[in-house]
Amino acid sequence: MSDINNALRRLDCVFAAADQGSLRQAARILRVRESSVSRNIVALEQFLNMQLFDRTAQGVRLTQAGAAWATPIRIHYEGLKDALTKANPCEHDAKTLRIGLSALGGRAFVAALLRRFKALHPHVNMVIADCPHEQVLQSIRRRQIDVAFITAPATISACASEVLVEERLFVLLPMQHALAERAAVSWHDLANERVLIPASQEGAGAQLALASPFGTDHGPDLEICVGNEATVVLKVQLGQGVTVAEESLAKCGAANATVWKPLEGQNSVVAVKAVWLDSNPKRALLRLLGIARKSARAQPGNMRSSWDGERTARR
Hints:
- The protein is an alpha/beta fold.
- The protein folds into three domains: 2-84, Orthogonal Bundle (Arc Repressor Mutant, subunit A); 89-164 and 270-303, 3-Layer(aba) Sandwich (D-Maltodextrin-Binding Protein, domain 2); 168-268, 3-Layer(aba) Sandwich (D-Maltodextrin-Binding Protein, domain 2), CATH 3.40.190.10.
- The chain contains ten helices and eleven strands.
- The strands form two sheets. Strands 3, 4, 5, 6, 7, 8, 9, 10 and 11 form a nine-stranded mixed β-sheet that branches. The protein has a two-stranded antiparallel ribbon with strand order 1-2.
- The longest helix has 21 residues, at 64-84.
């Protein structure tokens, strides 16, 4: 059994590194030291007499030979992991639908979707939980969740996905902020600002920052706040930074001493997509996806802001 565990541990490291493009991020997901990830990958490379990864200062990437080897192996790896996991049989009940949330926008759409699904299929037990952005694909492949709603700028590997909704982003500013008198602001206006992101949205927030026009260079200073959204709003009230959220949340109103302003220009809209495994046989999942598509088509302008009259068709 120890040989199997060693083999699985090495494969865990290989696939985590391949998904994340970084040994450090792979170690974080696996909750081990970065040196342990590197050591296990090297051991497997020596066993196979093959270089699996190209290593650069920016991270790691599967070589052409490594990718050709990893693709078929992954299917057997996921199946073996499932077979060896001592899970409660009821967790695989066809009438239970596990839903992961890891999106910076589209919360009003998702909430309405789940309410409608529950009304139409009251016999289905929905288990809803936050899912760290960097663990979404792994959780889906291991059938720990059936479907996830994520912010669209993400690499999708071995999973099905579909953009469902787009929503305008808004910035919450302290009332005394220099930009508070503007009708709208752009990412360039936020250069060198401190953008506060709740810890529960860390991965989605990081992707948002990377999607901004300047990427990681001369862009906003992203600060992950240990706490919930109320903590973030309080910090904004105290003038300790700004935060970004979707239009539906902004329309709920601003807290005292703050004001919401719409983002305009490049990357001012966030797209939310559903991600799932095509081989998942649950009928409840197929029904949820069908309702999601109908709901998305029924959304006027795909939830693009009516602030400036723009409309964007669903991609």
